[in-house]
Design goal:
The complex is a heterodimer of chains A (111) and B (346). With 111 residues, chain A is an all-alpha fold. Chain A contains four helices and no strands. The model of chain A has no long low-confidence stretch (mean pLDDT 93). Classes of the chains: A mainly alpha (111), B alpha/beta (346).
């Protein structure tokens, strides 16, 4: 089953046009690992602000592509960051796995 | 449908590259020119370096977030005229409401819907255009400081007591000039004279308030307060005299009319505010001080000096101004004589 909502992706493609859609996918593929790494580092240094902001960006990007499950995971982590609670358990591992899966699916959607 | 909105310059502020790409593309599709910034700090540098018609502003950003930039722009007399549309994810609605309450023009949810984007961007640009026209119109008929106060605080009739310096500047023997010369030359002359006087008064922080024939009434210390209002008034008078002298030299070489001026300056309490009716009102200062400045201007002719001031003004001047006491004078309509001084113009 697709991790990306076909309807949302179709809207995005219509809005960006075929020329830009690859650039937008590339921006996601480039930036997503940096965001996950920044969240991991923020847990280590207990930098609540950086953790929350990166979770926020991940959520925003996941929403843009219609990656609903990834967005939900990121949203939960953003809420924890906002509450100052960085006891994330295995949630970051789950997020990383979901992000990798979405990334490889997006890779195949380049035009 | 083609947009009636002329090509405008927009600043897109977002720390997220995916959002910047999509917003930039959507705005360019509307025919506008864009610049981007990755946080509030970068955006502020760009806003101060060149002019923009609209800002699309993200809330969550590192270094300086959307709230901080919005707040700085709203406090800044130049930047507050640029409309700001907040862009946010759909679950940030509380933050967006806060921004709109603070003074943001509107908001858009991300990912943006191109139709909503077009509607909100065009509505904001149109409102800005109307406000700019309004400001230009007010500035044509009112002094810059009065116009800014009107745009900022709105308008209400009524005044307040203020201590200010009033300056009256007039062309000597203007009636003779008007009678002896071609009306077109007279208007050209008076326009050049007004340009010198009004620009100089404003450059010194004064309010060029009313023109009557060849006379200009200016106020220093209201509506914008400066503690050194007397010093500013006298310095602007000296500056005006220097510029009129230079103007006369250039007129002579062109074989054109020359002018001589007189300046009267008085300091004291007035009532400052808007007078008139709800539909036709003007910013004025009323009181003895204003009348005295006009009497002192008339007195320049009798004492053959260019700039004449009262004791209240003289007391507020620093040593850089050279004054000459001219004794006491009892002016028409006054019961107490006034100590009069002239200011040396060279």
């Amino acid at each position: 089953m697709s991790l990306i909502s076909p309807a949302t992706f179709a809207d995005l493609r219509r809005m960006s046009g075929d020329e830009l859609i690859n650039d937008v996918i590339d921006a996601f593929l480039d930036d997503a690992p940096t965001m996950v790494a920044a969240m991991q580092a923020a847990v280590g240094t207990h930098d609540v602000e950086s953790f929350r902001r990166n979770a926020h960006s991940m959520k925003s990007n996941a929403d843009t592509f219609g990656a609903t499950a990834l967005a939900a995971l990121a949203r939960e982590l953003e809420a924890m960051g906002r509450a100052g609670d960085l006891n994330v358990g295995t949630r970051l591992e789950v997020l990383r796995a979901a992000c990798d899966a979405v990334s490889s699916e997006l890779e195949g959607m380049r035009i | 449908m083609t947009s009636p909105i002329p090509r405008s310059r927009l600043l897109i502020v977002d720390d997220n590259r995916v959002n910047r790409l999509l917003l930039a593309h959507a705005v360019e599709q509307l025919g506008h020119q864009i610049e981007t910034a990755e946080n509030g700090r970068q955006a502020l540098d760009k806003l101060r370096a060149s002019s923009f018609d609209l800002v699309l502003l993200d809330i969550e950003m590192p270094e300086m977030d959307g709230y901080q930039l919005l707040d700085i722009c709203l406090q800044d007399s130049e930047l507050r005229n640029i409309p700001i549309i907040m862009t946010s994810s759909h679950d940030e609605i509380d933050s967006v409401i806060k921004c709109v309450a603070l003074g943001a023009e509107d908001y858009l949810s991300k990912p943006v819907n191109p139709i909503l984007l077009r509607a909100r961007v065009n509505a904001s640009l149109e409102k800005k255009r109307l406000r700019d026209d309004h400001r230009r119109l007010i500035r044509t008929f009112a002094d810059k400081d009065v116009a800014d106060e009107l745009m900022r605080d709105g308008f209400s009739l009524g005044g307040k007591h203020s201590v200010i310096t009033s300056m009256f500047c007039d062309i000597r023997d203007f009636t003779t000039i008007t009678e002896a010369n071609d009306p077109a030359d007279v208007i050209e002359l008076i326009n050049e004279y007004y340009e010198i006087v009004i620009e100089t008064v404003q450059a010194h922080g004064g309010n060029a308030n009313q023109m009557q024939g060849d006379g200009l009434m200016s106020f220093f210390g209201a509506p914008v307060y400066y503690p050194d209002h007397a010093q500013r008034a006298v310095k602007s008078a000296l500056d005006i005299c220097r510029q009129i002298a230079a103007f006369n030299v250039s007129q002579t070489t062109k074989g054109k009319l020359q002018i001589a001026i007189g300046v009267g300056i008085a300091t004291g309490q007035v009532i400052a505010g808007y007078a008139g009716t709800r539909t036709r009102a003007t910013y004025i200062c009323i009181g003895d001080t204003v009348n005295l400045s006009s009497r002192l201007e008339s007195h320049t002719k009798a004492v053959k000096r260019q700039v004449v001031i009262d004791e209240n003004t003289r007391r507020r001047l620093d040593d850089s101004i050279d004054v000459e006491p001219l004794g006491e004078e009892l002016f028409k309509g006054k019961t107490i004589p006034v100590q009069v001084y002239s200011v040396r113009t060279t």
